[in-house]
Amino acid sequence: MLHLCIVGLGNPGDKYSKTRHNAGYDFLDIIAEQFHVDFKYLKKIDADYVEIDFKDQKIALIKPREFINKSGKTLQLVRKYKVKNTKDILVVHDDMDLEPGDVKLKLSGGHAGHNGLRDILKVIGNDFVRLRFGIGHPPNKDQTDSWVIKKPNPQEKKEMANAFEKAINNIDKIMLKDWMIIMNDLHSNEH
């Protein structure tokens, strides 16, 4: 069994590449690049998958191939085949309640209107860790669906890159599941 599964949420396909909703995919791509590993499709969990050896621990990076609103399917399979405990799952996702540039770690909780999380909660419960990247709110609540599948503007993109960097600076602690230390670091570095 794995020490940790890091699951990045996003929508598959070029059409959605680098959109706000794909913050989870984007962050996993950064980790994979840093560790010089490449994703391969793993049919058993219907996801792009790669394992990293880190300090005698096996860590998996997982990008579900389903659309974000159906993320629960992959998480159910991850739970079945890859980890004993949902506490060993870190879900990386976009969050409209945080501004671009903000990144927070949360140990459990509800879905806060995020349809990907809503689907996951239905399937595996809420006892997993989340890494939340801020994407801000659309100017109008009616625009939520189109907002999340658009690319961020240049300023937001810069802010999001800063948030990815803050999180990557904690990658060793993430791999070791030092959640409280990460929370202290990320939450005390408000910009």
From TrEMBL:
Q: Where is the active site?
A: 21
Q: Which GO terms describe its molecular function?
A: peptidyl-tRNA hydrolase activity; tRNA binding
Per the record, where is site Stabilizes the basic form of H active site to accept a proton? 94
| Gene3D superfamilies noted in UniProt | Peptidyl-tRNA hydrolase (3.40.50.1470)
Q: Name one GO cellular component term.
A: cytoplasm
**What's the chief localization of this chain?**
cytoplasm
Q: Name one GO biological process term.
A: rescue of stalled ribosome
Q: Which UniProt keywords apply?
A: Cytoplasm, Hydrolase, RNA-binding, tRNA-binding
Q: What PROSITE patterns does the entry give? A: PEPT_TRNA_HYDROL_1, PEPT_TRNA_HYDROL_2
Q: Can you say where in the cell this protein is located? A: Cytoplasm
Which reaction(s) does the protein catalyse, per the Swiss-Prot or TrEMBL entry? an N-acyl-L-alpha-aminoacyl-tRNA + H2O = an N-acyl-L-amino acid + a tRNA + H(+)
| Positions bearing the site annotation: Discriminates between blocked and unblocked aminoacyl-tRNA | 11
Q: What superkingdom does the record give? A: Bacteria
Per the UniProt record, one Pfam family is: Pept_tRNA_hydro
Where, in this chain's numbering, is tRNA bound?
A: 16, 67, 69, 115
Stated EC number for the protein is 3.1.1.29
Write out the function statement from the record. Catalyzes the release of premature peptidyl moieties from peptidyl-tRNA molecules trapped in stalled 50S ribosomal subunits, and thus maintains levels of free tRNAs and 50S ribosomes.
- HAMAP family per the UniProt record, alphabetical: Pept_tRNA_hydro_bact
The family note in this entry says: Belongs to the PTH family.
- Record's subunit section: Monomer.
Name of this protein? Peptidyl-tRNA hydrolase
Q: Native species of this protein?
A: SAR86 cluster bacterium
